[in-house]
Amino acid sequence: MKRTPLTVLSAALAVSILLPGTASAAKIIIDPGHGGKDPGAVGINGLYEKTVNFDISKRLQVSLEKKGHQVLLTRTSDQSLSLSERIQIVSSMKGDILVSVHANAHTTKDAKGSLVLYYDHRYPQSRYPASSAMIDIWEESHKLAEAVQGALVQKAGTVNLGTVPSAAYMVRMGDIPSILVETAFLSNPSDAALLANESVRQRMAEGISEGIDAYLPEPEQQAKKPSAEGSSGAKGTKDSASFRDMASHWANDSVVRLKKSSIVNGVDSRFLPERSLTRAELITMMERAEALEDREAENGAAEDAASSKKAVKPAPVTIESARSKLLPYKDLLDNHWAYKPLSVAALTGKITGFPDGSIKPDNTVSRAELAVIVNRYVNSRTAKSQTGTEASSTAAAKASGVFKDVSTDHWAGEAIGHLNQIGLLRGTGTGRTYDPSRFVTRAETAVVIDRYLTYLQTNDKAAKETK
Ligand SMILES: [Zn+2]
User: Fold this and answer.
1) How far is the CA of 121 from the centre of ligand 1 (A)?
2) What are the structural domain ranges in the chain?
3) 179-216 pLDDT tens trace
4) 91 contact partners, CB below 8 Å, separation of at least 6
5) For residue 1, how far is its CA from the centre of ligand 1 (angstroms)?
6) How far is the CA of 438 from the centre of ligand 1 (A)?
7) C-alpha 354 – ligand 1 centre gap (Å)
8) pTM
9) Which CATH superfamily is domain 4-215 in?
10) Distance from residue 181's CA to the centre of ligand 1 (Å)
């Protein structure tokens, strides 16, 4: 049966996920596989798949809600549901994406690892036709599957079996981007032991959550038009003081300052402080900070017309010049929402490409990478007194002295050491560790950018006073 209205609806949903300006914190539907009288696979260690699926789903829910998303579950108890009932529930929930959580089993005990199923219309199966909606949006399912698979295996340390085109009912019949995650094999002794381990299940949930996050549109993409002069009246100022999910958050002061300067946008008056962020998002925020600092430097120069001291300002970069030089980055297309800031940042050496010719604009940023990128901005602004291998190794040595988990030869050691030295970066927990490989959150990033702006202003002032 042709279901034209559904196709239209799904196209609208797909568009709302893709287009800037219409994005919001997502409504995510989790489907804990099996349940009730259907235990699913039974592990080599006696573990029931339905129990594992439900536990990981609940942990996933907590993680996603912490990041500001709305989460709904197809079942909230040990309940029997058919696949068609599940899809009906999913449809009625009107979510943005569907993640079905399962554990795998195979007749050979050796099979182990994680994989993610999605419907791929390049390989249609005539006996198992997909919904017309899914035929329209399968590429979104594919992107979601890739993002989740990557983050899941990174976080859980399981064998990477990749994303797999599938005609499974749950990924084929819905009307929103849908994936089915096979966390690990209950039929394999070492995988089954992982699934029995609470902390591994937690890491699996966090990995899936990070993957979802990386797939979803970035809050910074929601570019509010730079507020025109006088458009924010006295009435609006109270309203725009902070975001409604930041009231008692430790990073609120920084976020408020950045919001006032239009460096951060958030989504639907939320900041989503615990969400990770992508390279595109970080660079967008950094380039906005740069533009702000340039404006302030110019104002300062106007006030003090006699001043010959000029801010170290990079030559303006035009998009035309950027375009020709950036062509080699195979994954930065000029219709990317952050094409302009990414182009400027790449052309001025703030971000660099990967050996495979990509620049991975939508990759999630780690704390180490944050340090390296921010350090490049700092260095491009300040006198180059820190250059030279001597200074570099000193900074790296300093980092390894301050943070137990940053060795002198860590690739980001120099940047972490330098930023720590000038007060932009601090450790995590008790301050003795830096957690370089953990994804950085939006709250942490906001605090670093806020400190960066203060640092620049202090430097400008010092430069003026000592001249
Ligand atoms: Zn299953």
Assistant:
1) 23
2) 4-215, 239-465
3) 999 999 999 999 999 999 999 999 999 999 999 988 88
4) 174, 175
5) 28
6) 30
7) 37
8) 0.65
9) Zn-dependent exopeptidases (3.40.630.40)
10) 9
